[in-house]
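Morning, I've got a small favour to ask if you have a moment. You're getting the sequence in one-letter code plus the fold written as tokens. Thanks so much in advance, here it is:

===
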Amino acid sequence: MLTETDPRVTAYINMYSVLGTLPLLAELVPEAKSILAGVKHPTTIAFRVAGGPRESLTFTRNDVRLGSAPGASAVSLAFTSVTHFNRVIAGTAQPIPWGLPAQLRFLTAVFSPLTDLLGRYLQPTDEFLADPERRETSIILTMHVAASALAQVANEDRSGKFSAHNTPDGDVALEVTGALAYHLRMRDHHATFVATPSPSPRGVLTFSSLEVAGGILSGDLSAVVCISDGRLSMRGYIAMVDNVNRILDRVGHYLGSK
């Protein structure tokens, strides 16, 4: 069984799954809304990772969006390698910023507080989780990260790409009973994470609760054990469900090593 992880894949997970969860944080968490209230003008941060992802996030008073926006102020964060980027996300290194002084101040006034807040939800203490509302939000955000990471692993990881190559076109629904539903869209062996229910999935993975979903997707719970005791069920086209389950196993290796 392949257990090694690739820092380049980790960088894609950090960009699109970890930082890619900032829009949901801004939607769900009042403290994030308070931080965004200080945005005087829409601002786009461009992330430039040598040998890795190149993406932008745009911040307004009301929300955070993936991508750039016309007329927004711009600031860039450069990273010399995927390892440098991963260390910055882990909090053990600093990026190389580029922009006017006012735009650079945006990083300390808005971006850093938002990422610190996200970190508290994704790596919560027991005291933090004692509040039921924060606990539920933490699980929802963690599941968003993990479900999104399915697409990154399918597209960038050597083992994940092998499984994606053997997965036919169609949608695989990721459902939590009575709570939420996402899906993974496969087209020409390329995966896209979609944070809405699929209208016509060819395969379905159903988790019995948010806690079970978060545990399996983050690698803290065994999918095999949860299938045997009914906490995870699978149905639909076997070729899709089986290969997505293999990718899911690889996601656990990446998130478990973070």
In short: The radius of gyration is 18 Å.
